[in-house]
Amino acid sequence: MFITVKELELQDLGFSVALKPGEIEFFDRLRQRGDLVAQGVAELRSDVLEEIRVHGHLHVPMESDCDRCLEPAAFEVDGDFDFCYRPARFARPSKDEVELGEGESEIAFYEGSGLELNDVLREYVLLSVPMRKLCRPDCKGICPVCGQNRNAITCGCQEKPADDRWAALKRI
Ligand SMILES: [Zn+2]
Ligand SMILES: [Zn+2]
User: Distance between CA 89 and CA 110 in Å, rounded?
Assistant: First the structure.
């Protein structure tokens, strides 16, 4: 759905979408597991600045690679989003010239007559990816000795003591 300033000048634009996996492109390591459901409103926050505010609620089951074993790690994005976009012509001429002031990083920009709702939703999902992505809380990871998935098998390899301690000894 494309949101135009022209439309918003007339009225706020409510939306309610259910997007199948593939309708929004994520990275290879980030996959959508089910429908992305979002409801919300797009509105003009300022007629003069043509600043578009898009806010609402989004829910989507996602999947990434487990940080420890690289098997699929499922997680959900479920939360409220609230973004503001200004026309690109109001963007600073060069990022090098002026440093961003506090809070200004929150403002994004759109080109032309408006912005694509899917881009807004994608942005929120990307911002919501958890720092730690684990297939399960107690994932044992990959054995550093034999390279096998320790959730699946007990390889019984003897792990060397922590490397840094040995490094410290060797330096003496
Ligand atoms: Zn894992
Ligand atoms: Zn092993």
Answer: 9
